[in-house]
Amino acid sequence: MEPLQEKEERHKSRSLYLEVLQTLSVLQCMLSFLLLGPVCVLLITWIVFSQLWPLFAIYMIWMISDWKTPERGGRRSVWMSRWTVWKYFRDYFPVQLHKTVDLDPKGNYIFAYHPHGIMSLGAFCNFGTDSTGFSHMFPNLKPHLTTLSGNFKVPLYREYLLAAGMCSVTHSSIDYLLSCNGSGNAVVIVVGGAAEALHCVRNKHVLTLKRRKGFIRKALVNGASLVPVYSFGENEVLQQYHFEHDSWKEKLQKLFQQWIGFAPCIFFGQGIFSSSSKGIMPIRRPINTVVGKPIPVPKMKNPSEQQVDAYHALYVKCLQELFNTQKEQFGLQKTDYLYLV
């Protein structure tokens, strides 16, 4: 029989090995988010001024012919969504997906994801990969994680996003997915967007939602059911430095948000291999993403403002109900509430 001490050492060694793989998987994702776009721009620039410029010319011709793909359902790679690296990414936190009811694949849905957090890591893990079992939990339902259309204008970087199953969050893209791409589509929209990222604070639950009604109108125009989705823990894995109100730094941050579409923030988590130091790595905290009950929505060609407001109020009520019924299960207090701005 194997000595107990040797068995414990082997177990400790394997645990350390898994922790290293988990850390590297998250690190590559963080670096991809922060640097892959700029690196692709630099690479393309180098190719243009090198002897390889004909390759760039051929790629640009193809890219122009493929320009509408992000607005026509994307080009999801099932193989990429099942990479082993995403399972290590999932286990780092860990990230878990929970469903409250089954969803009929004969219908189309808008998954309204909250909160944005700093980088929407839960949204990417659950709906950009299949590591948390979306395909088994919701069979025959295809998730389409949407992002800013500007991301698809960066050569090469767009191919990575398309392979990850992402689509543009433009009006035409959402309309296509909900009305021209058959049934069984789940369009995932991080409703709060860049503005909500600025409200990301640990142990607080502030959503930019009061004036966000575009997704309600899209649901009505296409007759797609609204599904509230809340990720408990999304705000806990990364922190940010908050600038003083009305300071030049805050004004510059908001101006950048208006021009570019997202708000740059100085964020931090833990060190790469040390939880006691600060760094770009997210803190190892569980992210539990709960998919709520669908809200049936009638199809209306031109919904009025009153109709949009009515369904927005209904959606907010259902979201708050989802939050309140699930919060204690995932470590929140009974006194924790959602705050809408």
Fold and architecture overview:
The mean pLDDT is 92. With 341 residues, the chain is an alpha/beta fold. The protein has twelve helices and eleven strands. Helix 8 packs parallel to helix 10. The chain has one domain (4-340). The strands form three sheets. It has a seven-stranded mixed beta sheet with strand order 1-10-7-2-5-3-4, sandwiched between helices. Helices cover 43% and strands 14% of the residues.
Write the layout of secondary structure elements.
Layout: H1 4-48, H2 53-65, H3 78-81, H4 84-92, E1 95-99, E2 109-114, H5 121-128, H6 134-137, E3 142-147, H7 157-163, E4 166-168, H8 171-179, E5 185-190, H9 193-197, E6 206-207, H10 214-222, E7 225-232, E8 239-240, H11 248-260, E9 267-268, E10 287-291, H12 305-326, E11 339-340
Parallel strand pairs: 1-10, 2-5, 2-7, 3-4, 3-5, 6-11
Antiparallel strand pairs: 7-10, 8-9
Helix pairs in contact: 1-4, 8-10
